[in-house]
Amino acid sequence: MSDDVDPGAAERVARRPAGPDESARASRLWWERAADEYQAEHGGFLRDAGFVWGPEGLDEADAGLLGPPDRLRGARVLEIGCGAAQCSRWLRVQGVAEVVGIDVSHRQLQHARRIDEETGVRVPAVEADAQRLPFADASFDAVCSAYGGFPFVPDAAAALAEAARVLRPGGRLVFSVSHPLRWCFPDDPTERGLTAEHSYFDRRAYVEEDAAGRAVYVEHHRTVGDWVRAIAAAGLVLRDLVEPEWPAGHDRVWGGWSPLRGRLLPGTAVFCADRP
Ligand SMILES: C[S@@+](CC[C@H](N)C(=O)[O-])C[C@H]1O[C@@H](n2cnc3c(N)ncnc32)[C@H](O)[C@@H]1O
C-alpha cells in the first residue's frame, strides 16, 4: 500500500458481497475511527445509563420489550454491539443481577470503561464478534442489541442462531435495526430522503471501500420477510415487531433520521423473539 493511502478512510461505495470476516473487520475499522465522534454527538441522547432502541427515542423504560423489570432482576443479560454500554448500564441500574456487553470495537469499549468510571456503574464488556460469541450455551436469560451487530453481518440466521445458542430455553432476544424500508431511500434527513432510489429487494451489501479497495464499512440489507425467516431459522419464535413512531415534539436529527421523514416512514424495526 502506498504511503498516501489512509487506511480506513472511505473513498467509494460498492454494492457487492462481503463475507463474515471482511464484514467484522470493516466494522472494527469503522468504529475505531468513528467512536469518539459518535459518543460526542449522540452520548447525551443515549444517556450514560439509558436504553433507547433507536433515533425515535423509544425507551425500554416505557416499552418493556425485555419483560417486566421484576422478572429481569435476577437475570443474566447479554448486550450485543453494546458500544459504550449505555443500555447495559441502564439494566444494571434497574437491578438486573448480571449484564455483559460485547462489541467488535476496542475504542467503543474504551468509552464504556470511561463512562463506567464516571458513573460508578460498571459493566463487564468483552471485545468479541456477534458471529462468534465467547459464552457457553444457555448462559443468558435475555439477549439485547440496539442497532449493534446484526445489521453488519452477512448471515443473519447464523448470527441469530449464535444469540439463540447462548439463551436459555424460555429466554428472550430483542434487537433493533434500521427499518428495512429505509433501504430504498437515500440516507438523507431532508426532502431528498423521501424519494425511493433503490430496490427494496436488492440484497447486495452496501460497502464503503478505502483507496486500496478494502471494505471499511459494511451494512447488509434484509427485507422484513428475510428477518422473519432468519429468526425462524435460528429456532426462535417471533413475538413482536415494533415499529416506533416518531414522537410529536422530537426534533432531533440523527443521520438520515429526522422529524420530516419520521412522520412519513418507519425508521427502526425492533424484533422480539423467544427461545422455546
Ligand atoms: C450503531 S452502534 C450501536 C451501539 C450501541 N448499541 C448504541 O446504541 O449506541 C453499532 C455497534 O455495533 C458494533 N458492531 C458492529 N459489528 C459488530 C459485530 N460483528 N460484532 C459485535 N459488535 C459489532 C459496532 O462496533 C458499534 O459499536
UniProtKB/TrEMBL annotation:
Listed under GO biological process in this entry are: methylation
Basic and acidic residues bias spans: 12-24
Q: Where is the Methyltransferase domain?
A: 77-171
Q: Which GO terms describe its molecular function?
A: methyltransferase activity
Gene3D superfamilies recorded = Vaccinia Virus protein VP39
Keyword line: Methyltransferase, Transferase
InterPro entries the record matches:
Methyltransf_25, SAM-dependent_MTases_sf
**Annotated segments matching region Disordered:** 1-24
Entry keyword annotation includes Transferase: yes
What protein name applies here? SAM-dependent methyltransferase
Q: What lineage does the source organism belong to? A: Bacteria, Bacillati, Actinomycetota, Actinomycetes, Streptosporangiales
